Amino acid sequence: xxxxNIFIALSLLLVFPLVSDKDAAADAPKGTVRVALxxxxxxxxxxVDGNYTLVDQSNGKQLAEPGQGETWQVIVKSGKxxxxxxxxxxxxxxxxxxxxxxxxxxxxxxxxxxxxxxKSVNAGLSVINGAGREVVLDSLNPSVRTAAGKMTxxxxxxxxxxxxxxxxxxxxxxGGLEFREESGRLAVINELDIEDYLRGVVASxxxxxxxxxxxxxxxxxxxxxxxxxxxxxxxxxxxxxxxxSSQMYGGYDAESPATNKAVEATRGMVxxxxxDLVAAYFHSSSGGYTENSEDVWVAKLPYLRWKEDKFxxxxxxxxxxxxxxxxxxxxxxxxxxxxxxxxxDLQELARTSSGARVKKLAVKGEGPSGxxxxxxxxxxxNVRIALGLKSSLFTFTKxxxxxxxxxxxxxxxxxxxHGLGMSQYGVRGMARAGYNYQxxxxxxxxxxxxxxxxxx
Length: 456
Fold this sequence. Notes:
Radius of gyration: 26 Å
Number of domains: 3
Structural class: alpha+beta
Helix content: 10-25%
């Protein structure tokens, strides 16, 4: 990449990287996230736009420097990885094999005495102004405000991007790509800086057109979620997935200026409870109430307490209806591991602390052997999943034939998701009502304390 030359000859400004130097920890540098993009892939390909090195991770050997726009193929053959460029082939390799992004640029800083300091722009830059306040610089279009007004600092604007093509199509990503052999197939992992990861998350989890304070709220919650997953999965091959089982991540192509601005504005901001990271679970719509953690799953967490959520009201996920015949209900329950040959009754046994959601449900009928079977399903998220519904905030009506035999069940409910922590539609409503992101987070996460610099 080109050297990004930034000359700042203002004696009142001190420029420094926002993220500390990388150190080795469980195969990944500190401050990075490993995202599982795909697994079970027979073959894949990639192209780079920028400065990358192909590395055999088993021995640290640098194999090649892929050229701009050159297509590389990755396959598994006899349990080994082969990587093929336009003119060269590498392998068989035990792997993993990493396509590693090199430094995208270096900032050259001049202080008031004319002394030079070199800093990587990958980590992000900020300045301390004359009032002692920290201001974040956009590394692609950095600027400062002088007495004469705002001045944009010229730079190359270069950015490392890698295009991955696999079973789900092609997308561009920041950071690097790792290819691992697992059971004769490829597993593909995107390793990148936490803040770059969040750029692809916030834009995928929340519409860019929503209020700025809502986007900032999402950025902090997503940062907490990712960091907590990094802590709890150390030693594993990846930390998070790119889908709803973790949080949605669309890579570089999903990014937007508004969501990137929200990530930058909250850089390093996290929520703590008792000095530990809050497990910042969030969902799409609460249906008007969030829940206690022990009612939805099992563990009791002090910051996940039920709340009335009047700002969540929306036309998308309120008053939905689902109708099942008994046969359809059997199929749904079977998909969740509950096998019935006949279903004769459905009974609500308990509700959550808010009174809004079904916490425990009994299903009566006959098992596969024909013997009488009663299954109790709890807690509320298991109820939702077992029935294949958007939420466990529902009521239901049973339908019978003339012989009083159950023929179907009709569900009416509101919300989408487990109902823990932050409701995204509720966040939108609070932001529209004038609340800032700090106030919104403190409402949804009881007793949480906001901390800068990742809570260090």
